UniProtKB/TrEMBL annotation:
Protein name (Swiss-Prot/TrEMBL): Serine aminopeptidase S33 domain-containing protein
Entry keyword Transmembrane: yes
Transmembrane as UniProt keyword: yes
Species the sequence originates in: Zingiber officinale (Ginger)
Keyword field: Membrane, Transmembrane, Transmembrane helix
Superkingdom field: Eukaryota
InterPro entries associated with the record: AB_hydrolase_fold (IPR029058), Hydrolase_4 (IPR022742), MAG_DAG_Lipase (IPR051044)
SUPFAM superfamilies documented for this protein: alpha/beta-Hydrolases
Pfam name, any one: Hydrolase_4
């Protein structure tokens, strides 16, 4: 059985730059935030429900490319948000049921209830014609949930796969794209706590996938962002704040990472900094660590044209570490 391992895309590399802003720059941001809050009563408007469930909307972008605070789907009644989550879960379950038996593998799902009484959607892929060599647990990234093709590739190589949709993602409960909390306690950032206190579910426009491509495969990108289970709206303030808090903590504690890990990163990734992956590799205390940087590749490696090569690299790393 495989030893515990860790895969990461080095997504916290740009956090250091944010946290290293000079005091003057931070003060200007804080003043702007205060001005926006004072203007909110005079600019109150809601975002249509189509943006809640990730469906594209033709008039989504404003005239300017700056950061704009908007009142999103949080203004919807709780019952309506619960209905939207139930719709997403029904779609996720239907997809599993439609592909339950595919000859070489078996699909299944389970619903787990958290201590907060939230329902999480989980699914599994089990190889039928091969002895199981190990177990892989897939944990998706922000606004993600699509790893079916990778799970099947792992099955073909003798690995059973489990995956879970985080709260606010895929078939799990919660406002779509909204992550209320992460368990790590890190130092506060300058701006985000103010918004998180007064408007935790507001959104920052132009702060998700609209500016930077994630793959050079146009068909794969279209398939991803037309999937209603993928959140394509702007990043919610609380979600972004929690990611930044966690990333800041990790960047200060990389030396504590002592488990085996493989880190993968495209050198042309505009969303996360490859330097963060290099720093993780350099500072981690693990004696079994590997890094692969792919020249010219973008953020979402598993939907890049070279995805077969990337999946093979991951599986080869696993295979060297199973009994």
């Amino acid at each position: 059985m495989a030893q515990p391992g860790m895969l990461t895309s080095g997504a916290s590399g740009r956090i250091a730059a944010l946290l290293s802003l000079r005091v003057l720059g931070g003060l200007l941001i804080l003043l702007r935030a205060a001005a926006l809050l004072l203007l909110l009563p005079f600019r109150w408007r809601s975002v249509p429900a189509s943006e809640v469930d990730g469906r594209p909307e033709a008039s989504k972008k404003g005239g300017r490319g700056g950061v704009v605070v908007r009142v999103p789907a949080a203004m919807l009644p709780r019952r309506q948000r619960e209905q939207e989550a139930a719709w997403r879960r029904a779609l996720a379950i239907r997809r599993v049921m439609e592909a339950r038996q595919e000859g070489r593998l078996e699909r299944d799902f389970a619903l787990l209830t958290t201590a907060r009484d939230d329902t999480l959607f989980t699914q599994s892929w089990s190889p039928l014609n091969r002895e199981t060599r190990g177990l892989v647990v897939l944990l998706h990234g922000l606004n993600e949930h699509r790893y079916d093709h990778f799970a099947k590739k792992l099955n073909d190589n003798g690995f059973k796969v489990y995956a879970m949709d985080w709260i606010g993602h895929g078939g799990s409960d919660g406002l779509h794209g909204y992550v209320p909390s992460l368990d790590y306690a890190v130092a506060d950032l300058l701006l985000a706590p103010l918004f998180c206190l007064l408007a935790p579910k507001y959104q920052f426009s132009n702060a998700n996938n609209s500016a930077s491509p994630v793959s050079r495969d146009a068909e794969a990108v279209e398939s991803k962002y037309t999937d209603p289970l993928v959140f394509t709206g702007s990043i919610r303030v609380k979600t972004g704040y929690e990611v930044l808090r966690l990333s800041a903590y990790l960047m200060q504690n990389l030396y504590r990472v002592n488990v085996p890990f493989l880190v993968l990163h495209g050198t042309s990734d505009d969303l996360t900094d490859p330097e963060g992956s290099r720093r993780l590799f350099d500072e981690a205390s693990s004696t079994d660590k590997s890094i692969k940087l792919y020249p010219g590749l973008l953020h979402d490696l598993l939907i890049e044209p070279e995805c077969d090569k990337i999946m093979t690299d991951i599986i080869d790393w696993f295979s060297c570490r199973v009994c």
